[in-house]
Structures are given as structure tokens and as C-alpha cells.
Amino acid sequence: MTALPFLLLIAAVMAGYVINRMAAGAIRDRGDRLHSLIGYHGMFSALLILVPVLTFILLWLVLQGPVIDRMVMGGLPDGALDDLDSGATQLVLAEIKSLANGRVFGTPEDWKIAAGERFVQLSNQAAWLLAIAVAVLAVGLLAFARSRVAAEFRARQGVEGIVSGLMIFCSTVAIFTTIGIIVSLTYETIRFLEAVPLTDFLFGTNWEPQIPLREDQVAAEGAFGWLPVIVGTIVITIVALLVAVPIGLFSAIYLNEFAPRRLRSAVKPVLEILAGVPTVVYGFFAILVVAPAIRSFGQSIGIDVAPNTALAAGGVMGIMLIPFISSFADDALSAVPRALRDGALGLGSTRGEMMTTVLFPAALPGIVGGVLLAVSRAIGETMIVVMAAGLIAKMTFNPLDSVTTVTVQIVTLLIGDTSFDNPKTLAAFALGMMLFIVTLIINIFALRIVRKYREAYD
Amino acid sequence: MNDMSTIERGAKLSETKVSARGVNVHYGDTHAIKDVNVDISNNNVTAFIGPSGCGKSTFLRCLNRMNDTIDICRVDGAIQLDGQDIYDKRVDPVQLRARVGMVFQKPNPFPKSIYDNVAYGPKIHGLAKSKSDMDDIVERALRRGAIWDEVKDRLHSTGTGLSGGQQQRLCIARAVATEPEVLLMDEPCSALDPIATAQVEELIDELRENFTVVIVTHSMQQAARVSQKTAFFHLGELVEFGETGQIFTKPEDPRTESYITGRIG
User: Fold this and answer.
1) How far apart are CA B57 and CA B40, in angstroms?
2) Cβ separation of B108 and A345 shorter than 8 Å?
């Protein structure tokens, strides 16, 4: 049933294309000069039908559910929903829907069965209504598009207008999504801050996000200071970058400038495979190989090392980030014009001097872009740290200690049974908001630095 | 265009600076230079002319081993600078390129300040002992590049902001700053307008005082204006080599005559 409107749409689009193309062709054959090629006349009709009808179908399908729900609930016998709060009302609706789908639990009341039947009936009606509406709309647009066909009609401009409108829509999707994310985060964060004062959250050095579940429970009041969590994130990010930036940069420089062509063509794909390894697998590697190795090495030289360390998690994360940095840096170095390399070599500089004095400054923006991406990935990375870094929030800068990160805390706050009206759960949104702000600030700063030191070559 | 003046200008009688014997260059399977012998004399401007793809730029790039930077390029034969084989194992191409400077077809100043562009070579070769030393070197090079007056007030603005002709003269100053013995120029005026071209040509003539200049050019008039010796390349062969006046007025080879009179090219 849901397929019918789409089939109608496809048929109308094809018909529109053929009809307009033929009509335009007829004008041309009569000897008149067409402004646009006949293909554009066809495309104009096809797009003119496709875009509005498809939008109409999608909107209908989105709105259909809530509207039918309201009609069903509104048609219930008087008094059936009295004394029920919103949660219980939702349960009644869910029960009616399962009845409508043929799943019966126990012996439902008669009015619920009636409502279920009504639900089925309304859904069927809605589907037919949609099909009819689509047919009417499509035929109307078809006729309108056909009426526009004329020798001087600017079908090409029409097509270009519609297509550029579609492109504008696509390019703004990301912006609107970002705005949506910010709005929802802000909303939940404000609710969190109603329960926990901003100063406690920003400057508290204690993170113990538990709250009593029941009135009689004797649990400690939770503490929601985010500093230990962000410090953990920073420590792990720094460790990861200390591994990834030098290795990634030097491998990019070597592959770009010094490596024989054959080695380069073998190593580059392998590096890219590294980028495709799932982070869970890196987590295994961290917890099973790297962490024990660090621990036993620490014991052998007499240093006490925690089983979960920031060093293990950060180090493995650094390995994960190598391909990001190396491939960005490689692209940036390759993009520097050959004329600049020739210029430097022609003046008698060695390849190393050419790299440090000419290529590197010219490629700086691209390289910094790669590092920035790596920073964002490191801050946002969850799986490796969940597995290898630990869960206890400790205010420490020691990489040999167990730390926790913002993302890990968000995960632990949101898994299990949660209700969205207590500070424990809402704290996750506040942390998310802070993460968002921190990455934003880092990005702005890095872009400033790049603008100051870059050597633009074009 | 008065070609006769070039005869009167004549070539200085002087010793050979660069000599090439039996030079062959292969790009992969392509035989780009076929058995070229040429003697380039000191303190003269030698012009390489010929139609596109005849190998004149390739041969020029052999003289400072820039072809080494191209993987698939293979150079055979002997090229001597002051009697020493530059393809000898003991010769470091990096040091060679300090002695044999190069100016490229398209102006390629580094995206640094004008000062840093000129100071680049002296810096990497350690030619300046102090800051004031370096200032002197930069000023002298920019004066030799005939661009000092135009840029002396903005030495620290970026070199890529100059006009095309200024950029090319900056590149010449940059090449001159390392005090090379030979200056190779690969169509240095092809990206310039006539006025800038005239300035660069005048500059080339002055540079002859201190350097041995080899210039590749597409323009026969330019070769006639600036050079004392001219070599005509065709399909990878050196067809004719002699004094510029003689090449342009009494070419010995029929191919040279055809090219000069515009029948091939």
C-alpha cells in the first residue's frame, strides 16, 4: 500500500518527461526555433512533478501517524482516559496499536478492540487518500508543465533553477542539523543546570554522578564537577597526539618526498587500512597487548603502573590517528606546486632543506587541518577509552594512572535504566555541550594560528 | 628588429666553461636528446633555440643535474664544468646547483618575503657571516636583478605579491645571490609582457659581465638580441651551433634556415 503513491509518482515523472519532450519536438519539427533543447523541456516537466509530489508524500507519511493517533484517542468512549497521566495514556495507545497489528495480550476491553478496528480502518483510508491526492497533484502538475511548452519558453533556465534550489537545500542540511543538535543540547543542559549550579559543574574537582533512586535510599549526594573528566580527556588526547603527530608527519614526509615510487604505492594503501580498523579492535589491542606491556615494563623498572592507564589508551588512539595525519599531510605536500620544489632544488638546497624551508610552510594549512581532525577524533573517541582507560574520575595528570574521559562518562551515564528528569542523566548532555564548546574553541584557535603562519603559494 | 647589430656585438674570445660530449637523454622509452656536443664559453650568453619539444629545456636541465629529480630520466655522456665531469660520483648535485644557478620559465618566488626569497640561497649555503652581511648580499643581488629600486621600501612584503615581470627579476636576483658561475635560464620571458621582457633582456646582457649565461628561448628575436652564441636544436639533435650573427644571417644547415625563416617550427 505504501508503495502505490511512489509508483504513481514515478509513472507521472516519466510521463511528464516524455509528453513535454514530444510536445517540444513537435514545435521544433514545425520549423519554429526552440529556446531550449527538447531534453530540457522534458526535464523541466519531470522535475516540476518530482520535487513537490515527493515532498508532499514524505510530509504526509510523517504527519499521518500522529494525526491518526489523535483521531483514535479522541474517539474513545467518555471517561476511558480519566485519571490517567501522560505515560499511562501512551500505554493505552500502544496497546491499541498492537491490537490493530493482530497481537493480543490477555483479554482486552471491548472499547480497546473497537479502537483497534478504528485504527486499522483509518490507516487504510489514509493510504487511499494519499494515493488519490498524489494522483490529483501529479496530473495537475503534468497539465501545468505541458501548458508551458512553447517555442520561447525558457525550459533550461527552469531546470537550472530547480536543480540549484535542490543544491542549496543539500548544502544547508548540515547547517540545520548542527543548529538542531546545539538547540537540543542547550535545552537539556539548561535543565541540568537547574539542578546543579553552574559553578559546581565548571569548577568542581569531584565527579561522582550518582543520586538516590528512592526516597529511603541512603546514598551519598552526587558530585558533578567536570574538571577531573576533562583533565582525563586532555591527558589522553595529548598522549595520542604525541604518538600520532610525529609518526604521521614523518611518514607523510618520507612517502611524499623520499620514498621510492614502489614503496609508496605499497605503504599508502596499508596506512589507509589502518584508518578502517574498527575502534573496538583497537580497544582489544590496547587492553590485551599494550596495557600489560606497559605494566610489566613499569614493574621491571620499579614504577607502579595502574592496570588501566591513560598511556595505553592514548598510545593506541595515537596509532589509530596516524593515517588521518599522514594522509592529510601527504595531500597538502603533494599540492605544493612543482615549481616551488624546482626553485628550491635549483638554488642548491637539499631535499631536507627544501622540505623544511619551502614545502612545509606552504603545506601548513593542510597539515594543521589533519592534526585538527585528529584532535577532534581523539577528544570524541569513546570505545578505546571505555575499554582501556578506566571509569573512575581522578583529578590527575599522570599518564600512568587510570583516568576517564568525557565520552566514557556520557556512555556510562546513559546506559541502563535511565529517566530523563534527574541530574545524573542530564549531566550527560551538559558534558556533551562542553565537549562541543571545547572542540569549537580548539578549531577557532588553530585556524587563527594557521592564518598567521601560513605561506600562501597561489 | 635589427639582426645585424648582433654581428657587430660579436662573441668574446674566451675559454670554455661548460663542455658537453656525446650527451644522450632518455625519458623512459623516449630518446629526448641525441648525441649532443656543445662548448659553452665563459662570460657569454649562449642561446638554445628550436621548436617546442626539441629537447632544449631538457638539455639545459642536464647542466645542473635537475633531471636527477625526475625518476624516469636517464642521462648518458660527459658534461664538464671547468674540466670536471659533473656526473661523476664524487660530485654532489646539491653543491653543483649552487655553482650552476637556474631561472625557470614561470616565475616561482617562494611564498616568503622578498628579503627571504633572496636570502634563501645564501642562508642554506652559509654565505653570510652576520645579519649586516646578509643585508649586503640581498641588496647587491637585488641591484644585479635590476629590481632594487622597485622593492627597497618593501623588502618584507611577500614576493608573490609582485607583478609577473618583477617576480621574474626577483627570481633572477635570488639565483644570482648564491654567486653561481653559470646561470641557466629556461624561457625566462615566456610569461612576461613586452616591457617586462625588455627589462629582463637588458638584465641578461648585464649579467654576462659576471656570469656565464645559457638561455633557452622560443623567440628567435630574443636569441638574436641577447646572445653571442646560438645553438639550434631540432628533434633532440643539435643541428647547428655558432656565433649568433652567423646563425641568423648565414646558417649552414638547411633546417636552421627553414626554422629561422619560419618554414618549420
Assistant:
1) 15
2) no
